[in-house]
Amino acid sequence: MSAPRDDEFGFAPDYDTPVPYMQRTRDYYAAIGYTTPYRWAHHVEAPFQPLKKPLSQSRITIITTAAPYDPTKGDQGPGAAYNGGAKFYQVYDGDTSQQHDLRISHIGYDRKHTTATDNGTWFPLPQLLKASAAGRIGEVAPRFFGAPTNRSHRVTLDTDAPEILARCLADKVDVAVLVPNCPVCHQTTALVARHLERNGIPTVIMGCAKDIIEHAAVPRFLFSDFPLGNSAGKPHDVASQAQTLELALKLLETASGPQTTMQSPLRWSEDASWKLDYNNVAQLSPEELARRRAEFDKQKEIARGNRAA
């Protein structure tokens, strides 16, 4: 008896599931010659801080892993190759009353399927300001904060997360919305969110790497099944960005306990084959893997020099 075809029952293709970023990353780095597997942050429980007041009375900040544009640091525009020179290594902040040109060339977002032409897809400040003007939230905090994308758990836990907490407390922040981009960004924001919650500040992460966030165990997670670099909505689609933020706000209000994941109903496209591409060694030739290893080593040297400067 032959097996029924997926389309006979209306099933989705087997690959139309959240991208397994942890396994893809392990396989990818092994394929280019780094044989020691990276250990992703893993917890089985998460802290949880209920809202202390309604969102309509709350002061909310954004924590981003995007970097301020610096014209002295090489190509950081749409389609730019990975640019280790544009990385930042200390927490920074920005005035939420001003416009900001934040970019993501310094991290491993999905360069094939992400345009990187609309920073509203990774920095939801415009939508948060609209929510404040409409009375959906009380106010936007005076500053947003940049979290360094750090592979070191210790640096994130011992240095960056406490620094972000201190700045949030100084600004009397009631709630934090965290927006990661690349795989390591997702881990970074997970660790920061856990630290903030343990110290009294409710959080929600808006992200696209479900496995990494849930492996780390966070209080609240809004999952958008989009290519990395689009955690805050689709590019040049204001309605998508507004809906994504509203879902995050609803999750803040409705989560009854930690490790609550809400999935956005929005789909990136009808064709889900984009999920097969990101760092998939099965689709990369030996020559391409060798080229990527050489480029990765080059960028590591650039980043090492910047960190030492």
Describe this protein with a few key phrases:
alpha/beta, eight-stranded mixed β-sheet, two-stranded antiparallel ribbon, 12% strand
Please state the CA-atom Rg, rounded to the nearest Å: 19 Å
In percent, how much strand structure appears in the residues? 5-15%
List how many beta strands DSSP finds: 10
| Parts with pLDDT < 50 across at least 5 consecutive residues | none
Helix percent band: 25-40%
How far apart, in Å, are the first and last alpha carbons?
67 Å
Following the backbone from N to C, one meets helices and strands in this order, namely HHEEEEHEEHEHEHEHEH
Overall pLDDT level? 93
Q: Major beta sheet, specifics?
A: 8 strands, mixed
User: Would you tell me the structural class of the helices and strands?
Assistant: alpha/beta
C-alpha geometry: globular
Question: Helix segment count?
Answer: 8
Organism: Bradyrhizobium cosmicum
Protein name: Glycine reductase
Please describe the topology of this protein.
Layout: H1 6-9, H2 21-31, E1 59-64, E2 67-68, E3 92-95, E4 102-103, H3 125-133, E5 139-140, E6 143-146, H4 153-170, E7 175-179, H5 183-198, E8 203-207, H6 210-216, E9 220-223, H7 238-254, E10 260-263, H8 286-308
Parallel strand pairs: 1-5, 1-6, 1-7, 7-8, 8-9, 9-10
Antiparallel strand pairs: 2-4, 3-6
